[in-house]
Amino acid sequence: MVSRPFRLLPSLIPPICALIAFVLSIVTITSDQWAIRKSFSPELNVFDWTDNNTIYTLHRSPFHICSAIADPVPPVDTNNTNADQPPPLITNVNYTIVCAHYYPFGFNRTSCELAIATQNDTYPESGDARLCQQIHFAGNFGIASTTFFGLSFILTLFLTVIAAHVVFRTGGHTPIHEHDNGVPKNTTTTTVEGDSSAAERRLEPTSTTRRRRAFIFSHLNLLLVASLFTGVILALISQFYGILGFIQSAPNNADYATSVGNSASHGPWTQGIALSRYATIAWAFATVAGFAAMGVWRLPSWRV
User: Fold this and answer.
1) Torsion angle of alpha carbons 287, 103, 277, 235, nearest 10°?
2) 214-228 confidence digits (pLDDT tens)
C-alpha cells in the first residue's frame, strides 16, 4: 500500500510548474533582452563580425531601450595632417550603454512613440504607427499573461493544500479524486462501537458535505485550467508581436552599412534570450501545469 506522502506527490506537479512559469514570465517582461543588436568596428569585414570583435551590444524590450553613448575623445592634431586629406577615422572609441525604462501606457511615456509625441524623429523611442502598435501589444499581452500565471500559481497552492489535508486526514479516499459526475462513490457511513463512536462520526463528513466539497474543488480546478491556458495563449500572442515588432519591423534592421557616429557598423536586430528562451519556457511549463491539473484533480462533469 502506498504511503500517504507518496499519494501527495502528483499534486505537487501543478504548483511547481506554475511557479516556474510565473517566475520566468516575470523575468521576461522585466528583461531588456527581447532584441539585441551588435556593433563592430568599420574596419572589419562582415566576415569578421564575431562575438570577440563586438564593440558593444544594444538591447531593447517593450519597456526598455538601451543606447550607446560615445565617450569623449581627444581632439585631432590638425597641425600634423594634410589639409587635402580627410581627417583619420577614429576607431578606438569607448562606449557607455545607458538603458532607459518606460511605462506600459501614457502619452510620450512608452518605449515607442509617434513623432507627434516626441517631436523629434531621431529619438530611439520614435517609431511609426505599425512598429509602436506591435511593441505595445507585445508588452501588454505579456503583462496580461503574467497576471494569469500568477493567479494560476495561487490557485495551485490552494488546491494542493486542500489535497494534502484530505490525503493526510482520510488517506486519499476523497471525492476530490474519486467521484463521478459530482456524486461520491463511497458515501456509506460506518458505525464504530464504543465511547469514541460520536467523535468518529463527527470526523467522517456526510454525503452532502463531501458532494459540496467535490463540487467546489472541481470548479476551482476548472478555473485553474482556464487561467493557465489563457495565460499560455496570451504569452504566445505576446511573443508573436515581439518578434514582429523587434525583429521584422525594427528600423534599419537590414541596413548593415549604417554607422553610429562614423565609428561603428552594426548587424541586424535578433532575438534576445528573454524573447527566445524565457518566454518559451514560461508558456511551456504553464502548459504542463494545465495538463497536470487535469490529470491529477477532477474537473466538473455535466449531464446532458
Assistant:
1) 20
2) 888 889 999 999 999
